[in-house]
């Protein structure tokens, strides 16, 4: 009786020792910064980590929690090497990886890696876990159950069970965070006579005050500080490019939340416009402002510049730019500067943006009022 | 006995060195194999390997290893580097990383658009997201960079495709776009910047060439040649150049994709124009020089043969186009794959040029082949082929 206990204790000690040994190299990977700072130490540390026993995989994955994206990649590569060997030797610690996956305090990126490893080791187990991921903090992990619900809805439709199909598609839409899946589900539900509120699902801000047109001659308007950047007085009138500029109310009718300057102000070229709105948050919280825009743009939240981008007509898409920010409880004021350039080709007419407020998963944060 | 062994070893080493195709368009970015061993007169598919994601990057070959990159996932966020055995196409290793920069591209291109390069010991894999990874040949991660993580406005919403080059311990990368446009020389051992310079604020998909030890950076403004170790200007040609097809070099001249083709003889600080032919107008594909002739594939899929001495046209041959990838050559043949995956072998010595063989790969191919060890490597969005 004594011997097995001793063996267990010895194993635990070895495991603890290995974990302790890994803490320093993991820290070296987590210490990498911009412009390659820390790469040399990380390279050496990486070599130590990949020699670790597969039992340490959860520990290495845990290193990704709170790490910057560069450090995540260092750790992701190390996990890949250890896991490849473990899978060959059938030594992947699947149970520990399942525990790691189930603990949603672990970072979404690390949990995606854990799920992929579980899937490589045991497809059936991964499929059994899939339904539990529908409300997951990781939008990547949500894709799997949403895909299953789309399949279930399609199967129900084939059997002419419209009610079951609507239930599956509706549940899928509730969990879906990626545009392709949301579009597919919205179409299927609408084909079945169901109403889908896409602006609400995405969290697009639809109501704005807009003012234009200031000059963007030679694209210099991007850096010119026009009056709306100094004050938000919605009853003011300013000197514009060719005529006076006044604020107007604008409500988007586009279900992807496009705020189109061409509509209230005409199809102008070499111009700058601004849009402002208030967003009422129920609490102080972290959030993301996500913007899609093919014009030059700047975004301010409560007077703080979040990001500025001077690229014109190279394309726009949903969530093209993700701007982490902090919302305060109550009123938050958003100001968007949207610059149109001088190009005259028919693919350069757009002078617009779409903007939504959501969490890091892409789940809409709806305004309190 | 010892001497014979040494000879054998030296020959083997020389053979290995010759078998390398280390960057976009191979040795010296000339698109022409320098090996004595050339593909068979009639080429056949030797093996096919599956890829899990899309890519326009060309394969590269280091000794007996073939490297290729691709991107997978709904937003192309997963960045793969594969190493295959050249002999049988079996996978030696794979690394899957995650983009830290923007992955938006035009639907036709991909996040895995720049071709990786190697200095023979390391493989440098760059992506449109500006993620850059350095591995040794066995797949050990040596260092990484997130160039958009470092420089937040360095991106192009249409996607980027400039392939890096490595010269004497410096990896030269370009991230030339409408916003935060730059080129940089990185230490191959650490990935740290040796130098970084602003580049014209204009989208650019062309890749650098190396001529007489200087790295020639092409853009809409022209071609700026810099010392790889310092980024200091060596010479500057400022009469404009293409932002898509890349220039080609020989020992004597640089054939710039500028106003058609402009043959240049750059010297320190100045550039002499040898000739210019505005009718030699490449489409997307970059030109190649084989023997005493330059070959240009225009936007209509017509290959034009012209004299290297004066740019005079000799003949035109219509291929089955269109082409996104560039032609390559070995021995007496030119190889080109069109967007529909039709692999075409051209005999450029025939009086009017002649297509001698076609193989339908039955996949969309938007990239440039690699040649090594008497074999041609071609990749699509889902496959890598060895033809020999």
What would you call the structural class of chain B? mainly beta
Based on Cα principal axes, name the global outline of chain B.
Answer: globular
CATH class of chain B: Mainly Beta
Number of strands of chain B: 32
Number of domains of chain B: 1
The average pLDDT score of chain B comes to 94
How would you characterize this protein structure?
The complex is a heterodimer of chains A (369) and B (388). With 369 residues, chain A is of the alpha+beta class. Chain A has three domains: 2-133; 139-196, no CATH class; 202-358, Jelly Rolls, CATH 2.60.120.380. Chain A is built from twelve helices and eleven strands. The termini of chain A are far apart. The mean pLDDT of chain A is 95. By secondary structure, chain B is mainly β. Chain B is 5% helix and 43% strand. Chain B has two helices and 32 strands. Chain B has a four-stranded antiparallel sheet with strand order 1-32-31-30, with no helix packed on it. Chain B is globular, with a radius of gyration of 20 Å. Chains A and B meet through helix 2, helix 4 and strand 8 of A and strand 5 and strand 9 of B.
């Amino acid at each position: 009786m004594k011997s097995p206990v001793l063996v267990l204790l010895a194993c635990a000690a070895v495991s603890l020792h290995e974990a302790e040994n890994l803490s320093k190299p993991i820290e070296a990977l987590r210490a990498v910064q911009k412009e390659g700072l820390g790469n040399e130490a990380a390279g050496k540390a990486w070599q130590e980590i990949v020699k670790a026993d597969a039992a340490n995989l959860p520990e290495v994955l845990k290193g990704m929690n709170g790490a910057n994206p560069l450090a995540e990649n260092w750790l992701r590569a190390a996990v890949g090497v250890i896991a490849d060997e473990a899978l060959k030797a059938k030594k992947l610690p699947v149970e520990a990886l399942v525990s790691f996956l189930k603990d949603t305090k672990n970072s979404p990126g690390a949990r995606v890696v854990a799920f992929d490893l579980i899937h490589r080791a045991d497809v059936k187990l991964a499929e059994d876990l899939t339904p539990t991921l529908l409300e997951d903090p990781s939008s990547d992990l949500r894709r799997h159950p949403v895909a299953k619900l789309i399949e279930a809805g399609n199967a129900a439709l084939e059997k002419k069970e419209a009610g079951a199909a609507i239930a599956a598609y509706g549940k899928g839409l509730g969990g879906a965070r990626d545009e392709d899946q949301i579009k597919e589900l919205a179409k299927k539900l609408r084909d079945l006579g169901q109403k889908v509120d896409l602006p609400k699902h995405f969290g697009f801000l639809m109501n704005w005050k807009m003012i234009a047109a200031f000059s963007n001659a030679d694209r210099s308007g991007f850096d010119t500080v026009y009056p709306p950047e100094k004050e938000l007085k919605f009853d003011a009138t300013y000197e514009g490019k060719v005529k006076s500029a006044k604020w107007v109310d604008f409500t988007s009718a586009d279900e992807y939340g496009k705020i189109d300057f061409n509509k209230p102000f005409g199809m102008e070229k070499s111009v700058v416009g601004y849009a402002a709105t208030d967003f009422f948050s129920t609490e102080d919280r972290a959030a993301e402002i996500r913007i899609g825009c093919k014009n030059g743009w700047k975004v301010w939240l409560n007077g703080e510049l979040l990001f500025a981008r001077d690229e014109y007509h190279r394309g726009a898409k949903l969530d093209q730019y993700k701007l982490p920010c902090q919302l305060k409880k109550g009123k938050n004021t958003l100001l968007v500067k949207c610059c149109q350039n001088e190009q005259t080709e028919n693919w350069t007419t757009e002078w617009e943006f779409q903007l939504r407020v959501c969490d890091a998963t892409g789940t809409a944060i709806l305004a309190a009022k | 006995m010892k001497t014979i062994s040494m000879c054998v070893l030296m020959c083997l080493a020389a053979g290995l060195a010759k078998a390398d195709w280390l960057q976009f368009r191979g040795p010296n970015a000339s698109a022409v194999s320098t090996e004595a061993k050339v593909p068979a007169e009639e080429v056949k598919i030797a093996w096919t390997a599956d890829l899990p994601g899309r890519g326009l990057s060309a394969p590269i070959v280091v000794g007996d290893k073939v490297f290729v990159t691709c991107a997978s996932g709904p937003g192309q966020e997963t960045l793969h580097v594969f190493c295959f055995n050249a002999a049988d196409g079996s996978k030696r290793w794979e690394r899957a990383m995650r983009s830290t920069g923007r992955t938006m591209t035009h639907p036709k291109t991909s996040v895995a658009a720049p071709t990786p390069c190697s200095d023979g010991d390391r493989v440098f894999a760059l992506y449109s997201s500006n993620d850059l990874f350095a591995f040794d040949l066995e797949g050990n991660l040596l260092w990484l960079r997130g160039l958009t993580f470092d420089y937040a406005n360095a991106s192009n919403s249409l996607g980027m495709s400039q392939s890096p080059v490595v010269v004497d311990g410096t990896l030269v990368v370009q991230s030339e776009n409408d916003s935060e446009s730059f080129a940089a020389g990185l230490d191959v051992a650490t990935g740290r910047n040796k130098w970084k310079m602003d580049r014209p604020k204009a989208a650019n998909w062309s890749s650098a060439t190396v001529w007489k030890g200087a790295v020639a950076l092409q853009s809409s403004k022209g071609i700026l040649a810099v010392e790889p170790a310092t980024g200091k200007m060596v010479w500057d040609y400022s009469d404009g150049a293409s932002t898509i097809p890349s220039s080609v070099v020989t020992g004597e001249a640089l054939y710039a994709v500028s106003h058609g083709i402009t043959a240049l003889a750059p010297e320190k600080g100045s550039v002499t124009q040898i000739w210019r032919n505005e009718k030699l107008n490449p489409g997307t594909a970059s030109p190649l020089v084989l023997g005493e002739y330059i070959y240009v594939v225009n936007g209509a899929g017509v290959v034009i043969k012209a004299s290297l001495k004066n740019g005079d046209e000799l003949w035109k041959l219509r291929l089955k186009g269109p082409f996104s990838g560039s032609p390559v050559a070995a021995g007496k043949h030119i190889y080109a794959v069109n967007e529909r995956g039709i692999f075409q072998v051209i005999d450029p010595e025939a009086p009017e040029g002649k297509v001698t063989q076609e193989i339908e790969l039955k996949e969309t191919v938007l990239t440039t082949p690699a040649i090594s060890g008497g074999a041609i490597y071609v990749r699509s969005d889902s496959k890598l082929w060895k033809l020999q």
